Amino acid sequence: MLVYLRLLKESFGFAMNALTNNKLRTLLSLLGVTIGIFSIIAVLAAVDSLDRKITKDLSGLDKNTIYLMKFSFGPSNIPQWKREQFPNVKYDEYTYMKGAMTNTDQMAYQIFTRRESIKYDSKTVSDINIVPVSQEFIDIQGLEFEKGRFYNESEANSGASVIVLGNEIANSLFENSEPIGKNVRLYGKRFTVIGVLKKEGSGLFGDGNDTSAYIPVNFVRQLFGDNNTSLTNVIIFKPEKGVDMDAYKGEITQKLRNVRGLKAGEMDNFFINVFSGFTDLIDGILGQMNVVGWIISGFSLLVGGFGIANIMFVSVKERTNLIGIQKSLGAKNRFIMFQFLFEAIILSVFGGIIGLLLVWIISIILTKALDFEFILGVGNIVLGTGLAAAIGLISGILPAIAASKLDPVEAIRTGM
């Protein structure tokens, strides 16, 4: 064991000697490993960070939550021209389904509308995500409040001019003053602030609750009517736990087809989007990002491997005389081989560490600049180091074998 520790120490010395004596050559040789490790770990760290953010943002939603609307979350076999003819879901359909559906925990009605500006006195906050929803939405979404409350059933049904503001909007409009009870202007109307949400940070697509404002859906219905083509309506279902999802979707399909008078053989003119399908789509995209990252980075690692092999062959040639002396003094082939293998691994790991250091520095910069927590996990650090060591082992094995098979007399004579 002590022999191998001494061997590792000597190999480390040779590797550091190669770094100091041949700086440019070594730098160019390690560049491929550095870039390869940087590329792979950067992609994996980005995907891991994005996955954590997605999990955090969607933690308040049940994966079985269903969105009934005229659009599909994912790809569809139905031609686009046909999908464009699908009607919006109606509020009357929502009230009917609410009374007719079984095994349902909560059901809400939401309208997707354009972004607006909110004013308070001389201050204006623009590009606000307006979320008109019925009162049940809070039980589905699980909103958390810093101040105030969500609107109740009476306010929702009457279309009262009340509003719940995201944290960033409230801070921009009111700064240090109390927002609850104040009047803001939206759609040219006065709205009374009844709640402010807790700060969450940017959402999945950069549009979180901090920059959203919630108002009763019936206010928007009274303002724009039920047949406005610029709006998209959706009925949100939260089924009871343990429900057979296929049977539940079948019940939704049957009841809505009956309401719309669709005959047997006619295709459905709506989409039942299960939230788990959306998350599966995102997981698939993240998986593809991983694969692409590995493929691109693989080429860099291949180049890096050739660079390490090249520097090791040069190292063997430069130390031919020394190898001959070691073998003439009784050094075994295995000792010589391990000496060069350890040196190749140390050089490669050194390049990998530089790549990891670059990822760490960039992660700190991005976290501060983008308000997004970019995380370089321990698992990715271990993976990067292991990959670098593996590249060094594979790249150094041929030069090490070549060194171990040198004839001591020829090696000394060649070195002289």
Describe the structure using short key phrases:
416 residues, alpha+beta, 2 domains, 4-stranded antiparallel β-sheet, elongated
Molecular structure report:
The chain has 416 residues and is of the alpha+beta class. It is built from 14 helices and eleven strands. It folds into two domains: 2-57 and 286-415, no CATH class; 87-269, no CATH class. It has helices at residues 2-21, 23-57, 80-83, 91-100, 137-141, 153-158, 167-174, 217-224, 245-260, 275-318, 320-328, 333-370, 378-404, 408-415, and strands at residues 66-69, 104-112, 116-120, 123-133, 145-148, 162-165, 183-186, 189-197, 212-216, 232-239, 271-274. Strands 3, 4, 5, 6, 7, 8 and 9 form a seven-stranded mixed sheet that branches. A four-stranded antiparallel sheet has the order 2-10-1-11. β3 (116-120) and β4 form a beta hairpin. The radius of gyration is 32 Å and the shape is elongated. The relative contact order is 0.18. The model has no long low-confidence stretch (mean pLDDT 81). Its main location: membrane. The chain crosses the membrane at residues 26-47, 292-314, 335-362, 374-398. InterPro entries: ABC3_permease_C, MacB_PCD, Macrolide_Exporter_MacB.
User: How many helix segments?
Assistant: 14
What percent of residues adopt helix (DSSP H or I)? 55-70%
What profile does the largest beta sheet have? 7 strands, mixed
Structural class of the helix and strand makeup?
alpha+beta
Please report which band the strand proportion falls in: under 5%, 5-15%, 15-25%, 25-35%, 35-45% or over 45%. Answer: 15-25%
Number of domains as seen in the coordinates:
2
Low-confidence stretches: none
Regarding quaternary structure, what we see is single chain
Protein name: Putative ABC transport system permease protein
Organism: Flavobacterium micromati
GO molecular function: transmembrane transporter activity
Keywords: Cell membrane, Membrane, Transmembrane, Transmembrane helix
